[in-house]
Amino acid sequence: MAGDGGRRRSGSRGCREGVAAAASPRVGREDVAAYVARLAAEMVELARVADLHLLAYLADMTRLEAEQQVRLLRRTPQIGPAPQARDTRPPESR
After folding, report:
1. N or C: less crowded end of the chain, CB within 10 Å?
2. Quick one: average pLDDT of 87-91?
3. CA-CA distance, 28 to 37, in Å (whole number)?
4. Is the pTM of this model over 0.70?
């Protein structure tokens, strides 16, 4: 039995650490945006099948934004990491 009363730790910190650990510096921003677009398209279909109209709409907005980012990144040569607006950074990086 665990020393913490058998409770599992939960929270977003572990999730963020897992994502950060899994992220590879070799993965480009364009690849990530394209992947998000594909995932969002799948979420749109799932939400529509379940008649979750607001979720379908929000997922579709995510898909459209990700696709636009892919187009922009293909047009703009990237020398290094692009600057990120302060308000879009995770709270722990501020």
Report:
1. N
2. 58
3. 14
4. no
